């Protein structure tokens, strides 16, 4: 029995081993195929890795190129910034040059205006000298003097007189003649016979001297503004265009300038009507401010002005101009409230 079992077992061993070998061969084939697949995948991965390495190399190279390009662009940007800075500096320099030229142009215009004013002064002076070739000679005016014949009075008819002085004024050629003092006598006490008889004393020589002196030195003017100034600017001159009085012909309504033809002490007055806000005005002598005035109100219109007493020499010029003012301020014209006047005091 045991032998039979052993024989059977020995017969079965080759069969089992064959099956094992068959199964091992199949497994080996499977593993071989898997190994081949892995080798193929490894080859593919290595190929992809090589391609990635090449791509990385290309990207690194491109990165270097981009870095150099960026460096070049930054350098160019710096050059552009320097050029822009140079352009800005050149523009600022050009602006300063333009400002200097504009200032010189304004100075030239002011100089031209001053020369034109001086030319007008010379022309008026020449015309005055041509009209009066002998300015130094005093013109003598004579007037007939009425003298009443004295009547011989009886002693009983003699009366006493006290005298008083009467100051009179005459007009000669449209100008004020010098005052003439007349001494007259009037009876006050008929019982007093010790006083002299009535007399009329008039100094013809004094008349001649005073008339010739004052007739040539009478200077006075009065002018008003007839139109409003809706747009004003600092240092703008006010031309008081309507000349009401101009004795001596020293004021020009076209330029708004008084030109001194006789040296002496003058009195100037001016008023300016402002609507709305406020404005400062200046009285100017030969470009120098000699008087200031304030006109206006914070919300409503207002009138302001001033008066100045000043010594002038022949050829000096006096005018009124604008000073500081608020935006939107206008010079208002209403019943001659904006005016300029002056006269020779002594």
Q: Which range does the strand content fall in?
A: 25-35%
Order of helices and strands: HEEEEHEEEEEEEEEE
Question: Averaged pLDDT, please?
Answer: 76
Extended strand count? 14
Structural class: alpha+beta
* CATH architecture classification name of the largest domain: Sandwich
CATH class of the largest domain: Mainly Beta
> In order across it, which strands form the biggest sheet?
6-5-14-9-12
Structural Rg: 58 Å
How many angstroms separate the termini? 179 Å
Domain count, please report it.
3
Q: What low-confidence regions span 5 or more consecutive residues with pLDDT below 50? A: 134-204
The coarse overall form would be rod-shaped
Number of helices: 2
Question: What's the gist of this structure?
Answer:
With 346 residues, this protein is an alpha+beta fold. It has helices at 2-131, 204-217; strands at residues 160-168, 171-172, 175-176, 180-189, 220-224, 242-247, 251-252, 257-259, 264-274, 278-285, 288-296, 302-312, 317-325, 339-344.
Give an overview in words.
With 346 residues, the chain is α+β, with helices and mostly antiparallel strands. The protein has three domains: 80 residues; 61 residues, no CATH class; 126 residues, Jelly Rolls (Sandwich), CATH 2.60.120.40. Helix content is 42%, strand content 27%. It contains two helices and 14 strands. The strands form four sheets. A five-stranded antiparallel beta sheet has the order 6-5-14-9-12, with no helix packed on it. A five-stranded antiparallel beta sheet has the order 7-8-13-10-11, with no helix packed on it. Strands 1-4 form a two-stranded antiparallel sheet. A hairpin with a 2-residue loop joins strand 10 and strand 11. The protein starts with a helix and ends with a strand. InterPro entries: C1q_dom, Cerebellin_Synaptic_Org, Tumour_necrosis_fac-like_dom. Keywords: Coiled coil, Secreted, Signal. It is found in: Secreted. This is Complement C1q-like protein 2.
């Amino acid at each position: 029995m045991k032998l039979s079992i052993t024989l059977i077992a020995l017969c079965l061993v080759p069969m089992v081993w064959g099956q094992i070998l068959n199964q091992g061969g199949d497994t080996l084939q499977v593993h071989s195929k898997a190994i081949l697949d892995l080798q193929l995948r490894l080859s593919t991965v290595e190929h992809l890795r090589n391609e990635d390495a090449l791509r990385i190399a290309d990207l690194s190279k491109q990165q270097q190129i981009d870095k150099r390009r960026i460096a070049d662009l930054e350098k160019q940007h710096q050059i552009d910034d320097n050029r822009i800075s140079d352009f800005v500096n050149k523009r600022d320099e050009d602006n300063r040059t333009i400002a200097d030229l504009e200032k010189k142009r304004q100075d030239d215009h002011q100089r031209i205006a001053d020369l034109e004013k001086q030319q007008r002064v010379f022309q008026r002076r020449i015309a005055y000298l041509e009209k009066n070739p002998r300015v130094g000679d005093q013109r003598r005016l004579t007037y007939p003097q009425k003298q009443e014949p004295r009547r011989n009075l009886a002693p009983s008819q003699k009366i006493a007189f006290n005298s008083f002085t009467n100051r009179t004024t005459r007009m000669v050629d449209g100008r004020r003649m010098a005052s003439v003092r007349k001494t007259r006598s009037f009876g006050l006490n008929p019982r007093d016979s010790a006083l002299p008889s009535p007399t009329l004393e008039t100094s013809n020589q004094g008349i001649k001297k005073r008339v010739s002196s004052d007739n040539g030195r009478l200077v006075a003017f009065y002018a008003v503004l007839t139109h409003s100034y809706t747009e004003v600017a600092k240092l703008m001159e006010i031309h008081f265009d309507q000349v009401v009085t101009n004795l001596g012909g020293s004021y020009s309504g076209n330029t708004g300038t008084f030109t001194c033809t006789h040296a002496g002490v003058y009195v100037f007055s001016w008023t300016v009507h402002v609507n709305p806000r406020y404005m400062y005005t200046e009285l100017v002598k030969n470009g120098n401010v000699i008087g200031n005035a304030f006109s206006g109100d914070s919300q409503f219109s207002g009138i302001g002005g001033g008066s100045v007493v000043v010594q002038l020499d022949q050829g000096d010029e006096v005018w009124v101009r604008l000073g500081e003012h608020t935006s939107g301020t206008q010079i208002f014209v209403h019943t001659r409230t904006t005016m300029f006047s002056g006269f020779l005091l002594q």
